[in-house]
Design brief:
Largest sheet: none
Number of helices: 13
Distance between the termini: 31 Å
Oligomer: single chain
Order of helices and strands: HHHHHHHHHHHHH
Structural class: mainly alpha
Radius of gyration: 27 Å
Strand content: under 5%
Shape: globular
Helix content: over 70%
């Protein structure tokens, strides 16, 4: 067969076969990715608590092991200590600010229909085209009905005591299946820690070097998840406190609860700021004592919070742990949020993207040069 083709034709055929193999491999990867995404979309309410418990177990395991070694406690007693460390501060904050939170949440949902009416009236006078489009969609009417339902639920929680609490917890359980999350966390913490040096045993069908690469990638992904979420929790909490205090000082209605909410949404980078801008600016403009100066005050609070986060919190807490450009972070959040059709993708966007960057660097360094059909001659 060598007599039928000259060296140039052989090179072309080799390149074509290599290209076809790459296309086939890419198609298989895309098909596998699409299948995984569809599976996660259909069962996201089941996987989200498990993923949350897995991330919490990675964050809490060093503390859990330190408690065992420092005080010579059994695993179950150390587990009780961990849950006490989590619950006691939460219950203290709830006892201090719980009444204020319930009051502001209820007031927010109660007054939302009135605020939407004022917004509709303003748009009829100043932006009739936008108002006509929104009337066709019916979004504001649906938002009013939803706010009325939420207000009734909050009132039931505040006035109904245990019955209202049971109803609210039932709704949360039905929607997110969070009731099993603590159970997952218990089992994950009690399970033996992952020993990366033994992961190679699960891939006996691969060569030794390839097994080592898989162990390296798994270790990198775990490190990225731990560093990212550990730092992002601290940053989100700090942003929530700053915005809650700032909005309250400005005089924004329900500013305390909104600031805490937007801060916690910053667990997904920039999400809390984007949602905060879209909600607080109309609220500051349309609330009874609102106007231009209140909008300016809200913008100043968000800007100061963002500056503190960008120039102080993130560099000191996160450093360059992910190695991603801010524009790449924003793109990754929207891409994975759309790909996984919800909050699960947005939460995992940064770790997944950072992992793919590590994977690409490893592949480019160790495997892609091997695919060159005509490598340069060695000197």
């Amino acid at each position: 067969m060598d007599d039928f083709f000259n060296p140039r034709q052989k090179k072309i055929i080799s390149s074509a076969i290599t290209g076809l193999a790459l296309i086939t491999l890419a198609a298989l990867v895309l098909f596998l990715f699409r299948s995984i995404v569809l599976f996660l979309n259909n069962f996201s309410s089941v996987f989200l608590p498990l993923v949350t418990a897995g991330i919490l177990s990675l964050l809490l395991r060093p503390v859990y092991q330190w408690i065992q070694e420092r005080w010579k406690l059994s695993p179950k007693i150390a587990l009780v200590a961990i849950f006490a460390m989590l619950l006691i501060p939460f219950l203290m904050l709830l006892g201090i600010f719980g009444g204020l939170l319930v009051e502001q949440v209820n007031a927010l949902f109660t007054s939302l229909p009135e605020s939407l009416d004022r917004m509709q009236l303003w748009m009829k006078e100043h932006a009739p085209a936008i108002q006509a489009a929104m009337d066709q969609v019916g979004g504001i009417d649906q938002l009013k009905a939803w706010a009325a339902d939420q207000s009734g639920a909050i009132l039931g929680l505040a006035a109904g005591g245990a019955k209202g609490l049971v109803q609210t917890l039932g709704i949360i359980g039905d929607l997110f299946s969070w009731a099993v999350m603590p159970v997952y966390l218990v089992f994950l913490l009690l399970a033996p820690p992952i020993k990366f040096d033994r992961l190679e045993e699960f891939f006996p069908f691969l060569k030794g070097e390839q097994r080592g690469d898989i162990v390296f990638l798994v270790g990198q992904f775990v490190d990225i998840v731990v560093v990212f979420f550990r730092g992002q929790l601290v940053i989100a909490f700090a942003q929530g406190v700053m915005m809650a205090v700032g909005f309250s000082v400005c005089g924004l209605s329900y500013g305390f609860i909104l600031g805490l909410l937007f801060g916690m949404l910053n667990l997904v980078p920039y999400l809390g700021n984007l949602v905060g801008l879209s909600i607080t600016i109309p609220l500051a403009w349309f609330q009874p004592e609102g106007g231009f100066m209140l909008v300016v005050g809200v913008l100043i609070v968000i800007a100061i919070t963002q500056l503190v986060e960008g120039y102080f919190l993130t560099p000191r807490i996160m450093g360059k742990s992910t190695g991603l450009h801010p524009m790449a972070v924003i793109f990754a959040i929207f891409f994975w949020g759309k790909a996984m059709n919800g909050i699960l993708g947005m939460i995992l966007a940064i770790p997944l993207t950072a992992f793919l960057v590590v994977l690409w660097r490893l592949a480019k360094q160790k495997y892609l040069p091997m695919m060159d059909p005509d490598p340069p001659a060695s000197e």
